[in-house]
Amino acid sequence: MERAAPVAQPAGRSVPGRRAGSRRMQTIVVTVGLLFTAFIAFASHEWGATWHSIVGIGTLGVIAWHVYSQRHWVTSAARKRTRHPERKLVIYNAVLASTFVIAMVSGFPVWLAGAGGLVERVHAASGMVFLPLVIGHLILNRRRVAAKLRRRAAA
Q1: Is-contact 77 86, C-beta < 8 A?
Q2: pLDDT number for residue 1
Q3: Distance between CA atoms of residues 85 and 111, nearest Å
Q4: What CA–CA distance (Å, rounded) separates 11 from 20?
Q5: Which residues cross the membrane (predicted)?
Q6: What is the pLDDT of residues 35-65, one digit of tens each?
Q7: Whole-number Å distance between alpha carbons of 113 and 134
Q8: Is-contact 56 41, C-beta < 8 A?
């Protein structure tokens, strides 16, 4: 009785579908993580400056992971700028990133030095704008996220 020749596996893939499943999970974790940390950062303002700042720094980590996982799109957008096929999203993401940077930078003096006045108002305003922008970001990317989840589930 002859044995069938072994089927070659794609490079870097020991179990068929395993990588697709982990990417699907990554999409779910990042999407839920972004929404969760945005809402918690907003709600944690009532918990005091230290907890609010810790949550803000955690949000920075989730956003960094998200941007890293989307580095090819970000690189393409940076290279093409207004000629990018999704130029609305490029501009929207730049506004979202700027709002987050303003909130983070203005939050440190409020947390560490107890700064008030204009710095505190800028931090509060940018934080209030950030949450709806995150929700808008998810809405603008809903087809991409849904496609990733469907494609990964089928794999």
Answers
A1: yes
A2: 54
A3: 40
A4: 14
A5: 27-43, 49-68, 89-112, 124-141
A6: 888 788 878 878 888 888 888 888 888 888 8
A7: 28
A8: yes
What pLDDT shows up at residue 135?
Answer: 87
**109 Cβ contact partners less than 8 Å away, ≥ 6 residues apart:** 115, 119
Token couple for 142: 């809903």
- Dump the DSSP string for 37-92: HHHHHHHGGGG-HHHHHHHHHHHHHHHHHHHHHTHHHHHHHHHHGGGSTTHHHHHH
Q: Are 103 and 56 in contact (CB under 8 A)?
A: yes
Tokens of 62: 């989730």
Which residue is it, tokens 């089927």? 7
The Cα–Cα gap between 138 and 88 comes to 14
Whole-model pTM: value is 0.70
Hey, what are 128's tokens? 């209030």
- pLDDT tens per residue, range 68-100: 988 998 888 888 877 878 888 888 988 999 999
